[in-house]
Design brief:
2 copies of one chain form a homodimer.
Chain A (H helix, E strand, L loop, with lengths): L6 H15 L6 H8 L3 H8 L2 H26 L3 H12 L13 H8 L5 H27 L9 H21 L3 H16 L3
Chain A binds a DNA duplex (30 and 30 nucleotides) through α3.
DNA sequence: TTGCCACTTGAGCGATCACTCAAGTTGCCC
DNA sequence: GGGCAACTTGAGTGATCGCTCAAGTGGCAA
């Protein structure tokens, strides 16, 4: 009996698995099990393991970016929007996330051998993310919420690093209250940058 | 012709390779090439790939800890010692480091599937590291360098996360000056915590 | 109903994985 | 020099890797 598969659903399932296990530790057998697709179908749909991984990274980044944009328009100010995003996007606040670590951060730290295409894709996505952070900080500067001599790019860099640090700690710490406090500290810091 | 091997040297070479490539992406063939040892000798000396990895993590942590202790006794104050450690220990300042990322941070973010022994070892080493950070902060509090109501454990947590964030960013950023600035910002922050 | 085509299937490809062990080599003691 | 324990060697183990493709299946137009 043949079973028809939804490429979109399968990609989500692959995303979760890659997120949880990492690229190198996830075999096609694992992906087969998770998606219910047989190897032939997987390759017809996605081309290769590496391409599927890149697609999953892209999808994750797109979703994160969409959430950020949505919170931005609802927020009272650019910095409030960013703070809301940090509070809401952090995987601990997302019950569906397989790990309390940003997928992109985990992927960055684990990728190293071989596949240049994956590294390029990751670099692209992270650079893009930094750029949107910087744009928001610039808006805050223009709106007078931050001193005129603030460096938007530097603030974006710092936020990016702070979020990564948060991810690292969240993966280790089992006490949710501790992480919650760290998230709050970071959002507070973003709201009243100086 | 048989070649006698130095277990200590081989462990260092394995450390570098694991650091660069990650555990899952490093094969025994890679380790064979790097150490010059044949599989039989590797197994006689280290038992298994996982045990070799654990040993390399331990060695790295021990070295880092020794460096921290050494800088501590030389420094004018506990916080100065910690700041010196951050400045000096960061892989960008260490020409021998294969990557500008703390080995333990990278290992934490990449480990996920299977081997419980590795995760336990990592958790141990990181917890130990946090504890020494906390102890130093406590010394600073006792010495009056920090307000009496400071939370040493929280400060240690924050520093641990900040260092991880730094690692993440250092892996992406190609401009050494940018990283240098981030390191300086962090050391300054440690020196005058409040 | 028939013929066609797009999609699914899964056995199986060569390569590589972590790991073993019998055979070979070495160095030391007597 | 002979004997032996300790170490090194690397071909080989079965399992699994990412991936292919000929055969099978289902849906639709005529």
């Amino acid at each position: 009996m043949n079973v028809s598969h939804d490429k979109d659903v399968a990609l989500d399932q692959a995303l979760d698995l890659f997120w949880k296990q990492g690229y190198a530790s996830t075999s096609l057998k694992d992906l087969e099990r998770a998606t219910g697709m047989h190897p032939g179908s997987l390759y017809a749909a996605f081309g290769s393991k590496a391409k599927l991984y890149c697609l999953s990274l892209e999808r994750y980044a797109t979703r994160l970016s969409a959430l950020r944009a949505e919170l931005q328009v609802q927020a009272a100010s650019p910095l409030d929007g960013l703070a809301d995003f940090i509070a809401k996007a952090h995987p601990l606040s997302d019950a569906d996330a397989p790990l309390p670590v940003c997928y992109l951060v985990k992927a960055t730290l684990e990728t190293s051998k071989g596949n240049q295409a994956i590294e390029d894709k990751l670099s692209d996505l992270l650079t893009q993310n930094d750029a949107t952070f910087a744009a928001v900080f610039q808006q805050a500067i223009d709106a007078g919420d931050l001193p005129a001599n603030s460096d938007a790019k530097k603030l974006a860099r710092q936020l990016s690093a702070d979020l990564a640090g948060l991810c690292f700690y969240a993966l280790r710490e089992t006490d949710a209250a501790v992480i919650k406090e760290m998230v709050t500290d970071l959002t507070d810091q973003v709201r009243r940058r100086h």
